[in-house]
Design brief:
- It is a single chain.
- With about 625 residues, the protein is α+β, with helices and mostly antiparallel strands.
- It has 22 helices and 20 strands.
- It has an 8-stranded antiparallel sheet with strand order 15-11-12-13-17-9-8-19, with helices on one face. Strands 1-2-4-3 form a 4-stranded antiparallel sheet.
- A hairpin with a 2-residue loop joins strand 3 and strand 4.
- Helix 13 packs antiparallel against helix 18.
- About 50% of the residues are buried.
Amino acid sequence: MDKQQLSKDILKLVGGEENIDQVTHCMTRLRFNLNDNQKADKATLKNTPGVMGVMENGGQFQVIIGNDVPVVYNALVGNMSKSPTADNASSAASTGEKKKRNPISALFDFISGVFTPILPAITGAGMIKGIVAILVALGWLSDTSSTYIILSAIGDGAFYFLPIILAISAARKLGSNMYIAAALAAGIMHPTITALLANGDTTFVGIKVIAATYSSTVIPIILAIWIASYVEKAVDRVTHASLKLLIVPTVTLLIMVPLTLMTVGPLGTVLGNGLSGGISWLFDNMSIFASILIGGTMSLLIITGMHYALLPIIVGSMTTLGYDFIIPLMFAANLAQGGAAFGVGLRSRNSKTKSLAYSTGLTAIMGITEPAMYGINMKFKKPFIAALIGGAIAGGFMGIVNVKAYVLTGLVGLPSIAAFISPAISTLLYALAGGLIAIVAAAVLTYILGFEEENASEPAAPVAEPATAATTSASETEEAKAQDEQIFSPITGEVKPLSEVPDPAFSEEIMGKGFAIQPTEGRVVSPINGTVFSLSKSGHAIGLVSDTGAEMLIHIGIDTVKLKGQFFSPKVQAGAKVTVGDVLMEFDREQIEKAGYTTITPVIITNMHQYESIESAGRTTIKEKDLLFTAKA
């Protein structure tokens, strides 16, 4: 791959040098601050060989390259008459020229940052509710038995205490104290206060407290924690260091719990009920139109990141009404993407395209749509249009038969079919029929519309070659036949699936496969015997290549490149030989999180084309040097 030509193509497609305010890079992607994001040709960029993906996050335009990003960055800057780096941007900011962050982007980023981490908890609880519903529907479990009551409590617990879970997540995103936030939520949900508010005649220091129920609500606690973050930080600024532990939480709780009960909570309750009621009214009165519209545009919402705005509505509907209308339409849209990919496989004459289309189509039907959507359907354009139409047709059917989801799930695909089980088995059958309609309609339309296959021989997601201090070493191992590779844990913490990482480049496995670790300690050690082939200037990412050819990336936190090296202390340099357990990096986990960044750390193999699969060691908590996973050749 000609990196010089790639850099010229990228420079042109982002709108030219005059459209670039600043450009930096992290371990995997070019990060542009563009004067006008609309001038960038995203569609062409995504189909450019050497570009693994394009995304916008927090107002930043990001082009995912992979391990070659330093070479492409240097070539890009070399093709420009001036170097719009972060340092230059800082100077511009000091003179008042820095652009304000897009408030819509900031809102979506906040919603995503709050809801994505809690999805495992509420998904697990939701699936238990689904299992209980199946057991009752089949007559295997009585709804009056103690077993039923206990299982129901397990399923309902996360939803009943949702404000506490949300408080912790929101505080973490806002950079405030998570435990003060949890105490705030616990305060407004205390059984005594709940009983007091139920009487309807409650006052606090002579001021009337409006009755409201906070269990299972979403918006009231998010508003409360948002305001509390400012109160906490203001009190912290004026309090002497020796008194912070005593004064800050006390004053914050004394202000925020009554304020939430008297104003913020009731306002949030009205907003939440209004949203849920509005969605319910829309589907009750304009069901077919709404279902066709949302089913046909859901994939577009996912591409733009606007689907994050639906999360509070979905969770609010599920907790307030007991069901949701949007998840069935996501189900239709996702299966339509799989159907369109199958249509490409049926029509294509290129063996590589056929294989990729069938495999990504199956993945989409299982709920992971991005490989099919980006790698096949959007690449050939017409299949993507067919997928949108298929989603609209299936969405219309879902609206006509009034399909609802009764369980909140993480991935929306065939594995989540339990979400549609209700007292009436017909809902499940209608959901399956709608999914089949989505697949068939999209596949048939793709086959009829056809597509241009000039570039079909190009791989959908070009695999980057490692390029830094150890390029020669990495390229030599590329020629060797891959062997099974044991990957040991570089960090002590909790093992998470990549799907929980709040960054599509990792969660959608665009960069590679592996696992993530939520650190409980601030140290990174080598997971392999091999060579450090790159180390980001900001210290947040480390690239390694093992002695047997596995190319790895350890990415400490998300968007931590913005810290510019603060709180990171590298212990090795690029080119260093390492063995399992050698210390690579130390970082201040608490300070990074206090600055508002998650420290969840993806540990991935980037040259997965050399391996068949990865096999987890099965641990949920892990220590340094414990086996994390095995890459099977």
